[in-house]
Specification:
The N terminus is likely disordered. The chain has 348 residues and is an alpha/beta fold. Strands 1, 2, 3, 4, 5, 6, 7, 8, 9 and 10 form a 10-stranded mixed β-sheet that branches. It is globular and about 65 Å long.
Length: 348
């Protein structure tokens, strides 16, 4: 009898040990039973968009019990958006770094798009960047002076050179006289320094609502190496270009001297770009809300990863000058529930 009792207890304990892993692996109510593997497609290494992607992935991995994120280095906003459109099977597992111009270009199906893609949506606004024209030639004072010049336009296939082309073509009428060169910020700085370029488009990011800025590292290198001059946009001509092209071209307010570094002697303006995390409109609301929860609860920590990410704050997560319909519906509900304005101009 005693042997039988011991045997029954042993069997019961074995059954319990077998059951424990099953019980421990069960998800919390409302959570998926398995870990969801996310990918965040960033811009090239060294850009602010890569830093934003890495920060979000690390915060997700530290603060979610059922999401895990990995950063994939992409080629830019446009290519990232095209990847999302080409992989409908990955809509629940993909975040891409892009901007409002890439979204607009996709919706219109403009080249290099073969057909429109209207399902991208803002998830969270990471930064308000400004793209501007610089030169080491003090005789280049206006955009009209770019005729006949070698001008770095940023990387082909992205939205930046398209924006600048429309402005030069429809606003200034000299696009056919410009000698466009396509390259990233680093080679642009090097080309200006060694004289193989006459002018080029560069970028900086606003990091606080008080107007503090952080230039991209190649911009900072350029400023510290050579006296640098700025070529500002004529707002009226940009408005004409926006009307003729249909593109949502936004000229930021002039930045006062030394706004992006002590060597910036001139005030200047540029195009306003809302660098953001984008998802497909069909991404599962539960996944969207988990990402937003983590972002909202850890907003002040993004700046610990990169100075350019200091702009990310609870109050500005929805801060892009676009209609709120351009945001994921679950994001709109989340922001409005938490008293966050959706779709506004960060400069105003």
């Amino acid at each position: 009898m005693r042997k039988k009792s011991v045997l029954m207890i042993t069997v019961a304990m074995l059954a319990l040990l077998v059951a424990l892993p099953i019980v421990s692996s069960c998800a919390q109510p409302g959570q998926p039973s398995e870990t969801v593997q996310l990918q965040i497609r960033a811009n090239p290494l060294g850009t602010g968009m890569y830093a934003y992607a890495f920060a979000l992935s690390d915060l997700i991995n530290k603060n979610s019990t059922w999401l895990h994120a990995t950063v994939v280095e992409g080629k830019g906003s446009g290519p990232n958006m095209r990847w999302l459109a080409a992989h409908p099977e990955a809509v629940d597992t993909t975040i891409v770094m892009a901007n409002q111009y890439a979204q607009f270009q996709a919706e219109r199906g403009e080249p290099p798009w073969e057909k429109p893609y209207a399902d991208s949506r803002f998830l969270v606004v990471a930064s308000d960047a400004i793209t501007f024209i610089v030169t080491l030639d003090k005789n280049i004072k206006t955009m009209d002076d770019l005729a006949g010049k070698r001008v770095a336009m940023f990387m082909k296939g992205t939205s930046v050179p398209v924006s600048l082309q429309y402005i030069l073509d429809y606003g200034y009428g000299n696009w056919d006289k410009v000698k466009p060169q396509y390259m990233h910020w680093g080679p642009t700085a090097d080309g200006l320094i060694d004289g193989t370029l006459d002018a080029g488009i560069m970028t900086a990011s606003v990091i606080t609502s008080e107007g503090d800025w952080a230039p991209a590292p190649p911009v900072d290198k350029l400023f510290r190496t050579k006296p640098t001059y700025f070529v500002s946009f004529d707002k009226e001509k940009v408005a004409i270009a926006a009307q003729k092209s249909g593109w949502p071209l936004i000229v930021a307010d002039y930045l006062k001297p030394q706004a992006i570094g002590v060597t910036q002697a001139q005030p200047f303006n540029g195009l306003s770009t809302f660098n953001s995390y984008f998802v497909d409109v069909n991404m599962d609301d539960k996944i969207v809300l988990e990402i937003l929860r983590i972002t909202y609860e850890n907003a002040e920590k993004f700046g610990e990863y990169d100075a350019r990410a200091k702009r990310i704050a609870k109050a500005t997560l929805g801060g892009a000058a676009v209609d709120k319909s351009k945001f994921h519906p679950a994001a709109v509900k989340f922001f409005e529930k938490n008293g966050i304005k959706v779709g506004f101009d960060f400069f105003k």
